[in-house]
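Handout, section B. The chain below has 325 residues.
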Amino acid sequence: MSEFRPADSFRSPRFAQLATFMRLPHTRDVAGLDVALLGIPFDGGSSYRPGSRFAPREIRQHSSLIRPYNPALQVNPFEVLRVADVGDVDVNPIGIEDTFTRVEYAVGALHDAKVIPLCVGGDHSLSLPLLRAVVRRHGPVGMVHVDSHQDMWEEYFGNKYFHGTPFRRAVEEGLLDTKRVLQIGIRGPVYAEADFDFARRHGIRWVTAPQLARDGLKWAIDQLRVVHGGPVYLSFDIDGVDPAFAPGTGTPEVGGLTSREALELVRALVDVPLVGADVVEVSPPYDHAGITSMLAANIVFEIVSVIAATRQRRHKDSVTAAGNP
């Protein structure tokens, strides 16, 4: 598995060589991989501040500082998993539905190869084709969705597809097991109380940022139990984090998660069977000193670590069970 480890920073300086996610090798040959890191540089679904098309490159650059061992989860994911940067989807920058087709095809090929796709956007409209690809292999999935917005509006200027509609479309298309969906970090002004009606009608649960601040992170993590019972998809919109920690995003909302809370929420997904994930809505033109891209890079690392720690625990449990009559 050594060929799928990050470059040794004691022999190759972090600022040298081609930028890849976490200095991992780049490959287009996904055979034998466990996790594929895939960029999707598209922001044609953005409604306010653009720029997330530049995020995959910037996050790659800011991931170079990440070291391979995760002390919080006590795992080196690259000793457990074969992980590589498989490049970017060649999107259509002026065509959202064509881009969706391209994304679904590219990510579907990863699922067909039994590789878990961890995708870096791009705007949040991309979660819809990503879920379409997941469901082709796994059927309707549960979802953990970190965000300041529910992204369940009906339309925008008559368009059914933009970064505020992916999960309404996903519910309508039967992609989500709605009883196993939890949205975390929801906050900010909306157009009317009726904006929450769609989620209520479909039994979707959410934790608001004020609730988390009042009742605590442990309470919020306890709510994750609703997603258990089958495969789970993770969608992490960086604007779920407060703009004090993540200013480089398209639709910032004050009063959000801290960086520490964001990392702890991801770590709490150990033992959850993740079948795919995305980290979206980083907009480098609005970033300061790369702090948003740096946070996103660390979230990507935590997701890979969670998948590795889950696999490690299951292997240990199976070995223990095999040793008992």
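Note. Residues 291-322 form the longest helix (32 residues). Compare this with the example in section A.
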